């Protein structure tokens, strides 16, 4: 009967198609994670929209929580650990989803954009080395290392820029992630508003150069940048 409803109602096009990949997109704004026993995944709290099979979840361990430092401070638990056998569907307020497979690599991610990651990957909050963003302010990101899958979100369709081809400058509030090992520096410039009487002061961009890439979203959302004043 269920198959008849799907076929007769034109809903078959919305069924999740098996891909064989650990993490895969279902549409632009949904991540499908295939789980099996012993292949746990960490996911953002509240990101689960559905699952099938026999799955269970629990908060991260205190050891893992301590490794996350400031990101895990206060009452907010940064990640949940999912285990079992089945498919887990994740989304974050309709944001676009980008799934990446790391092969003994490291990725620096804006913490609020981390949707999911394999439990085999290492994760820590680290200060971005190189630029002094603003006087008295440090820029911190979540660094994920190892071999496995990681899923990040973007407010709109992201662009992935190759920093080996040319030095790349990005508004910090539009940054989603970048490969570690890139040379990072800060550049200051006059705000456009200052030229037309609608503002004053300086704008700051981050410059990236080297073998790697940056992921940039088409939005300058200052509310989700993990900044810690020191």
Automatic annotation (TrEMBL):
InterPro entries per the UniProt record, alphabetical: AIM24, AIM24_sf, Trp_RNA-bd_attenuator-like_dom
SUPFAM superfamilies found in the cross-reference section: TRAP-like (SSF51219)
Protein name listed in UniProt: AIM24 family protein
Organism this protein belongs to: Kitasatospora terrestris
TM region(s), chain numbering: none
Pfam family, one: AIM24
